[in-house]
Known about the structure:
Helix content is 63%, strand content 9%. The protein is of the alpha+beta class. Among the domains are: 2-145, no CATH class; 289-423, Histidine kinase-like ATPase, C-terminal domain (Heat Shock Protein 90). A 5-stranded mixed β-sheet has the order 1-2-3-5-4, covered by helices on one side. Strand 4 (400-405) and strand 5 (411-418) form a beta hairpin. Helix 3 (55-73) runs parallel beside helix 5 (105-115) and helix 5 packs antiparallel against helix 6 (120-140). It is rod-shaped. It starts with a helix and ends in a 5-residue tail after the last strand.
Amino acid sequence: MPGLHTLGYVNRIYDFIRRHPTWVDSCWAVLLLMMSAVWLISSVESDTEGLPQGPKEQIAAVPIVLALCMVVALRRRSPEKMLVLAAATGVAQVVTHVDVGPSNFAMLVIVFTVASRNIRWASLFALVAALLAPTIAALRWPDDNQTLAGAILGDIFMTVTFLLAWVLGDSLRTRRAYYAQLEERATRLEKEREAQTKIAAAAERARIARELHDVVAHNVSVMVVQADGAAYVLDSAPDQAKQALETISGTGRQALAEMRRLLGVLRTGEGIAGGGSGKDGVNEYGPQPGVDQLSELIEQVRGAGLEVNFAIEGTPRPLPSSIELTAYRVVQEALTNSRKHGGPGVGATVRLAYGNEELSLLAEDDGRGAQRDLYEDGGTDGLGHGLIGMRERVGMVGGSLETGPRPGGGFRISAVLPVKAAH
Length: 423
């Protein structure tokens, strides 16, 4: 289409001008030189006032015109040097008595250019020159045919013109600085957003790792205990062996269901938000366990051979899901550790106390306890990940956790989880 073709042509011209500013300025300088050449030729053929009078002034006008045209051509490449050149040319013009001509337009241009740059000394110098140059020109080349009032008004008009050039240039500098600040802020915000995304991803990976550890460590330990018991009584008590195998099967299914729920967080486009259904119509991504499921957990542990005394103090009430999940995982990890490290004949106690502003947990056993390197900073051998994850969980909800050997033998885990008062 003709309109689109014309628009594309204009865009190409604009891109060329933006990429080659010195070439564009040079074209303007050539135009100014041509106008000044006409002015010089007219001075030779005419004695009109406002043109160089006499051979000396006409000869001196040539380098002055060339210098001012150079100021326009190189104004963006070397603005400070061109400002000095323009000032020196103006002084030479006053000394040699070369009248103001078309080439003096370069002084307006350099004042604007320097003011638009972030060079404070040059901008202030240009401002002072803009204030003084019109008055100096009016005094050096007075118009005999002009009244005093007309001369003053003309001087004011030229001063305002120079000041307007400086103000426009300074406004352009301010706008450029503002845009640069906006770009810098956008870049900084983008970097901060990327950093926050990475932090969130790392936190999510850590959360999933804790969940997987709790699920695998607890359920697999139950399965191992039941498998050992089934192997031990397989010949002497087939019914007990069958019951142990059924417990292993149920525990395995429960572990798989929880792992599917956790891994479902990592998938997209599979209906995670609305939940998915397994072959049996069971929601694979159901609610996470909470305090209400502690009784089932205790029964499962008891079935694995660990005697557990479970008690609840205070009035049970609904709690935030994060508090309920943390409480469940703390008890689960504590009982898992009791089975793993308590030794034969170990017994455990779990106390859950509802307070006005906190939920207190106490899980302890009377076994031989864990080695110190399992609960101090994770140990140098890389063990103790369960207790580390437990501390992270409690810390994320603003609670406190104490772990360590119990007086008289065994191991104790005490947690305090802050909750809002019930209404």
